[in-house]
Design goal:
- α3 (78-93) crosses α6 (125-147).
- The chain is an alpha/beta fold and 315 residues long.
- It is 37% helix and 17% strand.
- The two termini are 41 Å apart.
- The chain has 12 helices and 12 strands.
- The relative contact order is 0.13.
- The strands form 3 sheets. An 8-stranded mixed β-sheet has the order 5-6-4-3-7-8-12-9, with helices on both faces. Strands 1-2 form a two-stranded antiparallel ribbon.
Amino acid sequence: MPRRLDYAGQCAELEKMARLEPRPAAEAASPGLAEPSADLACLVCGAGPARPCGYCRGVAYCGDEHRDRDARWHAPVCANLRAIADDLAFATEHPRLVDALLARATNTLTVPTSWADYLGADLAGSERRCMTDLATRPLTLAHALTLLSEHVPKTSSDVTEIHVMAAAQRERDVRPALWSELGRLLGRRFALTLVGPELAPGDLAPGIRAVPGLYRRDLWQGLGRPALVIGYDCGLLLYPTWKQTMLELRGSGVPFVITSYRAWEAAGEARVLKAIGAVPLLAPALNPFASLSARRSTTIANDLARDNAYLSAWR
């Protein structure tokens, strides 16, 4: 539980986000504190040893006074922080979870419209959340391709080229068998190129390759013109390097899809894209194939998000 910002800084960031997207009410009163640990520091004052939250163990305090001071921010996310810890433990204990997921998915013969369609309605808890986290990227892409069928038609070529911009280790770690679900569900062959500044180059599997670097239109000379470009949670509002890419994709004739962690982020990205002249093909909307397993912020203790929560498409 590293403290990446001072407490006042964390609260200021949370205040900003709460104004943009109000937090849900806490489901229960703040739990007590566990035994102190010399490895932990109080979130509020930095003193140690500190006592972790007795339920989620995701934050720690020097005592009840600072726990109560932070309750406004911690109580709404406590249960989710506990679920994150449970999901990490479950994934570690079940290294072959992808195989179990694919065994379930073979019962789906058409493009699903929900996780229940794809995985069945009987899954619950960490097993369900972890399976959705494994499959959110290929299923989000399958969903987008279905919605954009008139903009990404089958061509005379046997293979539909897809470029994944801003790809990182999360995309590289998706098992090839999960990416292959695109072909099984949609009845066509796909070739995926993952492009990202931190990627090591190489072929990951037949029809899947990784290319290091920022995504730029001049890459099409070597990679080929894609039928669709997608960026998973790429953060258009955070990184100025996106400006050139978006200007080059706008008006190129190739549709591009972006996903976002939050509603206000998706709305802000839509304003930016409209301002540069991009044409919306799909307005920002909740993605039925968002991960149900939350991810914890690396900078703010009481903040979390879910991968691919919102989806939009542009040209």
